[in-house]
Amino acid sequence: MNDATPTNQTPKIQIRGLRKVFGDKVILDGVDLDVGNGESVLVIGGSGSGKSVLLKCILGLLHPDSGSILVDGQEVVGLYGSALEEVRAKFGMLFQNAALFDSLPVWENVAFGLIQGKGMNREDAKIVALEKLASVGLNEDVAELSPAELSGGMRKRVGLARAIASNPEIIFFDEPTTGLDPIMGDVIDRLIVSCVRELGASTLSITHDMASARRISDRIAMLYKGKIIWSGPTKSIDNSGNPYVEQFINGNSEGPIQMQVRSL
Ligand SMILES: Nc1ncnc2c1ncn2[C@@H]1O[C@H](COP(=O)(O)OP(=O)(O)OP(=O)(O)O)[C@@H](O)[C@H]1O
What we know:
This is ATP-binding cassette domain-containing protein. This protein is 35% helix and 23% strand. It has 264 residues and is of the alpha/beta class. The chain has a single domain (13-250), classed as Rossmann fold (3-Layer(aba) Sandwich), CATH 3.40.50.300. A 6-stranded mixed beta sheet has the order 6-7-8-3-9-10, with helices on both faces. A hairpin with a 2-residue loop joins β1 (13-22) and β2. α4 (122-135) crosses α6 and α6 packs parallel to α7. The chain binds adenosine-5'-triphosphate. Adenosine-5'-triphosphate (ATP) binds at residues 22, 27, 45, 47-53. Residues 22, 27, 45, 47-53 line the site of adenosine-5'-triphosphate.
């Protein structure tokens, strides 16, 4: 399947024929996916379907067996060292568990990439961190706390502030609402949408939370058996006409998707 971009511009990310195998397990089996400029794409798929592997291939953390990943038209498969770092500098990422260092105060977690990655001095990096924390609704008192002192929702906010700290062109959201109650999930999703809009960033996200998926994406793509088997506007997800998508979004155990359940 060829995943057409919604505009004629060069896509921000263009993936073609991506294949990744671990031992005898084919995880990605020819993934084709585009993320347009300023577009928010969300990948759905069952546990173990390869969503994280896909993100890791784009970030160069895993090396695909074959296929192509273009970022702004530049091939990133096979890049390493400073060339890979240059591409990675375009990305921000909000990890599932926010992945904060408890040994550093909140502001330093946000400023970490600016100080370590971009060589910014601590004073300037702190100013940026405080600005970004303010943009996700956290004040200067919170900036001095340890992440261990924060609630789950606050940790996500800090993770979001860190993801946007360097004004990235592309942001990955990995399960941004996991572990939050539905109301806090909505709050975080709204923050994500407003921060992304303000930056004009393109996003690629993965989640199991369909309410969140509907809020933070323009387009949804479904990964199944190593391929994107459906992709379409988020607003048409309920009329996909695809039995795999229907089963997934309705959470039915009955349907064409065979979940592997190991009996104990
Ligand atoms: N480094 C690795 N070495 C071997 N197998 C791996 C490695 N990374 C991932 N896998 C396997 O690849 C498959 C896909 O994993 P992945 O984490 O991408 O799934 P996922 O769709 O993100 O799942 P979930 O929704 O549960 O997070 C799994 O079977 C996993 O065990």
